[in-house]
Amino acid sequence: MDLVCHTIFYSASDRVSFLHFLRTVGQVGGAVQTYESLVARERESSSTMNSNNVVLTNQNTMYDRLIDRATGGLAEQLYIRNGATQLLQRMANELGTARVRLNSAVMRIEQPNDYETEDLSSTFDQYPVTVETLDNVRLRCKFVVLTVPPPLAARIHTEPPMPASRDILCQSMVCGAAIKTITVYSEPFWREGSASGSFLSSNTDVRWAFDASETLDSGECVYALAGLFIGNGALHWSDYTSEERRQAVCSAYARVFGDERANTPLAYFEHDWSVDGWSRGGLVASAMPGTLTTVGEALFRPIGRLHFAGPETAIASYNYFEGPS
Length: 325
Ligand SMILES: Cc1cc2nc3c(=O)[nH]c(=O)nc-3n(C[C@H](O)[C@H](O)[C@H](O)COP(=O)(O)OP(=O)(O)OC[C@H]3O[C@@H](n4cnc5c(N)ncnc54)[C@H](O)[C@@H]3O)c2cc1C
Fold this sequence. Notes:
325 residues; alpha+beta; Polyamine Oxidase, Chain A, domain 2; 10 helices; 22% strand; binds flavin-adenine dinucleotide
């Protein structure tokens, strides 16, 4: 169960409320399916077990099931070539620079004090909400839709202050911890034999890895493994240097795939989402035990002209891109 929590929430199981767990796994078909898709059926079909609790997959098994809804997969059925950032870049291009402000973090939102009694239909043409940004821009608007996770929303000063339930909710939802790594090799040694490069593990520093090789427009193939430090492992490894993490990643691959070529990559890239101040971790924020039964409603309830969206409020595909879309 801890492996499932780490893989879905990037958090240890004691940090995720049971209700939150049920809500999420309910969207993907239930706890048994979640567990089986991630681990159990994989054990039956594993090609190699290099160490206890390492699930090393052969072709067409775990990762395929994760990405293929038709066969009961959990999520991630689409692969965005050249990276997910392109989605944002293309949407921004379509909207135009006049409508998209970059490097302009919202620091303060002020709405009328009487928002609880305000007649929105009679004041619809007015722009009574003020948004202030870090680069000292003041914007006037009718409504604000806040899509950042609750722990990030809590860093935005609001006038009047948030009701107690919303404030406690923001204090009780925590982002999972994740360091994503990409290690580039001259050859895909992990594909030799019947291994696909995917594994889930509860006893290596890198808990989850998969083949992230890509063919460039030029036709050249870049061979790479994506690996994730997640949950407590990410918190632990966050204090180390990038070079120390690179060594840990390579030795995990050498151990799991039983191949010393893992120790001589061409390049290594990483991003520690927990120390990224505009993200504070990932995948998304999870509710701590007791949160949803006390202040859970505040996750969705608008406060005057301030509305909330994002993966945390999704009613399907919670955790994933499709959720807030
Ligand atoms: C390591 C990792 C791997 C993931 N893998 C997958 C995957 O394979 N498939 C999948 O579907 N999902 C994945 N996710 C989850 C996915 O990234 C999120 O579900 C998705 O990005 C949510 O989109 P969003 O627009 O709601 O929020 P975000 O993408 O988090 O965007 C929020 C934006 O708000 C900005 N921001 C923060 N504070 C402020 C502020 N005060 N003012 C203005 N802007 C602010 C941030 O800079 C950020 O650009 C992954 C997440 C992580 C961390």
